[in-house]
Every structure is written in structure tokens, then in C-alpha cells.
């Protein structure tokens, strides 16, 4: 078994109205920033998977992404592998983080 | 004999008591079903009430979908059981794939708590048969942040063709609301869809709250016909097919 860390980036499907993105875009004028457009707001989920190998870990993440993290009717997702040790935020994030150690 | 109808309580449900009350007014023996129980306690119909199940974390309705009670409800629905989702309950059954489509954040971004008018598209369903007429405006409240109904153009064509649209937002005179009419269709739903029904006709969901408009003291009893339709249909279903009590 080995430990693998991933990020799943979920964004609204192209063409789906994203009122949050539009609101962010609308606020840019107040910052005096020009030339920014097509703002889309999504969510990013980071997770650690213990599995036989990276391939197996990735298929777990695929399943999670399609069944839970993203709604395929309205969202798309992209899976991004992360460096297992470096991606745990904060040195004291959890005892699990300490057990992980360097890959 | 009064018919037993269940109201599911998730952590974060907040319309369950109103819904139980409205069902009792319509003559049902209304019982609550806790989200962690797998048994449906022999009910002849299930209502998923409004609220913020599991805090609406991740996406409204999605986490509720994986609760033990929802697995039983999915099996119940597959077997022809009557299921009505109201507001957050609609979001839950849409996430569970029991009805087509998805509920997006309101186009205007804001949470909306106000009265709207909706009209039933058809009366030949277990959820609308007791209404006086199709197309007649029914006044009831909405209270949601993610109520903008969405289906892609192909799915929408299918929905219209197969008469899957159950309720639409309308003007006071019954005219269908335009998609960009923020007054009559405040969340911006495609085709002004306020509620849909499954292809088999036994599962329906709507964003407005019929239970909050189910007696005169609430300012409107326009929603009572929807609740009464469900209770009468449940009674008919219970007579036709005695419920299996507490299958474990």
C-alpha cells in the first residue's frame, strides 16, 4: 500500500451560467483592474488515498469525483496529483500527516 | 383507515414539522423518518421536506443522497412508491437522479424568500389530481438560494416532449413567466420550470413550498391541493398494494 495525494478541481461546465463568477467579475472594476474576463468560480477538494499503487488510487478519486464531488450535469472536474508530503498544509495538520512521512 | 405518509428528517431539515402538519390537515397519519434509519416504517408515500440537509455542504442535497434512508427511498421509488421533494427535498431527489435536472444557484445570486405563483401543467398525476384546473395560478412561498432549475437543451426537449414539467412559474393571470423575468421567475429557471415529475410519474419535486400555503391562516391555501393530491394517491396506493411493514 502507498499513500497518494490528489486535488480535484471542480468548475461549472462551459456554457452553464455561473452567477458567482459574474459577481466576481463585476467587482473587478472597483479594484481598477481591466482586461479580466470569463471568471468561473469552482471548488477544489484535496484528499489523501491509500491504495495498492497510484493507478488504483486514481481510480478511487475518479469514482469520488463522478459520484460525489462533481455533478456531471452541471460541472466538470480535473484530477491533479499532488506531492504527498509537501501538500499537507501545516506541519501539525494531523498525526496522520506525521505518519505519512516522506514517500 | 388513514394512510401513513413519511416525512424524512435530515440533520438540517427545517420544514419537517410544517410538512407533517400539512399532511395531517389533509387526513394522513404523518410520521417522521430519521435519516439514519433504513426502514420506511410501512409508509405509502414519502415527502422530503425543505431545509439545509447536511448544511448544504459541497452541493445542496448531495450528501443527503448517501444516507441510509435515501437508499431505501430510491428502492421504494424504483418499485413505484410515491415520493415528493419540496425545496431542499427537490434538490436531494435531483442529486439522487430520481428526477431529471439540477438546481443551480439563483441567477441573481441572492437567497430568495418571497411569494411566487406557479401553475400545474397537468392534473393526471398523483401530485396534482385534486387541483381545480391546470394552468391556474397557485400562490405560495419560495425560500432558497439554489433554485434555478437547469437541464441541458437535449434533456429539456425530452422533458417537454414527455410531459415531465409538472409546475411552471407564472404571472398572476396564469401566463407563463419568461426565463429572464426576475419578478415572476425569480431564480431564473429554464423554461420557467418550478417542478418536474419522473418518467414513471411516481416521483416529483418542486422548489416552492405548498406546505407553507396549506391553510387560510398562513395567507394562502393554494398549496393544499398538492398535499391533498399526494395523500389521496397514497391512500389509493396503500389499498391497491398493502405496504410491506418494516422489511429489514
How does this structure look, described?
Chain A is α+β, with helices and mostly antiparallel strands. Chain A has a single domain, classed as Phosphoribosylformylglycinamidine synthase subunit PurS (Mth169, Chain: A), CATH 3.30.1280. Chain A is 30% helix and 27% strand. Chain A contains three helices and three strands. Chain A has helices at residues 19-27, 54-69, 95-100, and strands spanning 2-12, 43-51, 75-82. Chain A has a three-stranded antiparallel sheet with strand order 2-1-3, covered by helices on one side. The radius of gyration of chain A is 17 Å and the shape is elongated. The termini of chain A are close together. Residues 86-103 of chain A have low confidence and may be disordered. Chain B has 248 residues and is of the alpha/beta class. Chain B has one domain: Class I glutamine amidotransferase (GATase) domain (Rossmann fold). In chain B, the strands form two sheets. A nine-stranded mixed sheet of chain B has the order 2-1-3-4-11-10-9-6-7, with helices on both faces. In chain B, strands 5-8 form a two-stranded antiparallel sheet. In chain B, strand 10 (193-197) and strand 11 (203-206) form a beta hairpin. Chain B is globular. The model of chain B has no long low-confidence stretch (mean pLDDT 95). Classes of the chains: A alpha+beta (103), B alpha/beta (248). Chain A binds chain B through residues 16-17, 19-20, 23, 43, 68-69, 71, 73-74, and chain B through 58-59, 62, 66, 95, 101-102, 104-109, 148, 150-152, 188.
Give a brief outline of the structure.
Chain A is α+β, with helices and mostly antiparallel strands and about 100 residues long. Helix content of chain A is about 30%, strand content about 25%. With about 250 residues, chain B is of the alpha/beta class.
Amino acid at each position: 500500500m502507498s499513500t497518494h495525494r490528489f486535488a480535484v478541481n471542480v468548475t461549472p461546465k462551459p456554457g452553464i451560467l455561473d452567477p458567482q463568477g459574474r459577481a466576481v467579475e463585476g467587482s473587478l472594476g472597483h479594484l481598477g483592474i481591466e482586461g479580466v474576463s470569463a471568471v468561473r468560480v469552482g471548488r477544489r477538494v484535496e484528499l489523501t488515498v491509500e491504495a495498492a499503487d497510484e493507478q488504483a488510487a486514481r481510480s478511487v478519486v475518479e469514482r469520488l469525483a463522478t459520484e460525489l464531488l462533481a455533478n456531471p450535469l452541471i460541472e466538470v472536474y480535473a484530477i491533479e496529483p499532488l506531492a504527498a508530503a509537501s501538500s499537507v498544509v501545516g506541519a501539525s495538520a494531523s498525526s496522520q500527516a506525521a505518519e505519512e512521512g516522506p514517500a | 383507515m388513514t394512510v401513513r405518509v413519511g416525512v424524512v428528517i435530515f440533520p438540517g431539515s427545517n420544514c419537517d414539522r410544517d410538512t407533517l402538519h400539512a399532511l395531517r390537515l389533509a387526513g394522513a397519519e404523518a410520521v417522521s423518518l430519521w435519516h439514519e434509519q433504513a426502514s420506511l416504517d410501512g409508509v405509502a408515500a414519502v415527502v422530503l421536506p425543505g431545509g439545509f440537509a447536511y448544511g448544504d455542504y459541497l452541493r445542496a442535497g448531495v450528501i443527503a443522497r448517501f444516507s441510509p434512508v435515501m437508499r431505501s427511498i430510491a428502492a421504494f421509488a424504483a418499485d413505484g412508491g410515491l415520493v415528493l421533494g419540496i425545496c431542499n427535498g427537490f434538490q436531494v431527489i435531483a442529486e439522487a437522479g430520481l428526477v431529471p435536472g439540477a438546481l443551480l444557484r439563483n441567477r441573481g445570486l441572492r437567497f430568495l424568500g418571497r411569494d411566487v405563483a406557479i401553475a400545474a401543467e397537468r392534473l393526471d398525476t398523483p401530485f396534482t389530481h385534486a387541483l381545480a384546473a391546470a394552468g391556474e395560478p397557485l400562490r405560495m412561498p419560495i425560500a432558497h438560494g439554489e433554485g434555478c432549475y437547469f437541464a441541458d437543451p437535449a434533456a429539456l426537449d425530452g422533458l417537454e416532449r414527455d410531459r415531465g414539467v409538472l409546475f411552471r412559474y407564472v404571472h398572476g393571470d396564469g401566463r407563463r413567466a419568461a426565463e429572464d423575468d426576475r419578478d415572476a421567475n425569480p431564480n431564473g429557471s429554464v423554461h420557467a420550470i418550478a417542478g418536474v415529475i419522473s418518467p414513471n410519474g411516481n416521483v416529483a419535486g418542486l422548489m416552492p413550498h405548498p406546505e407553507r400555503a396549506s391553510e387560510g391562516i398562513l395567507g394562502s391555501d393554494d398549496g393544499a391541493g398538492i398535499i391533498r393530491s399526494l395523500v389521496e394517491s397514497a391512500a389509493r396506493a396503500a389499498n391497491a398494494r398493502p405496504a410491506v411493514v418494516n422489511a429489514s
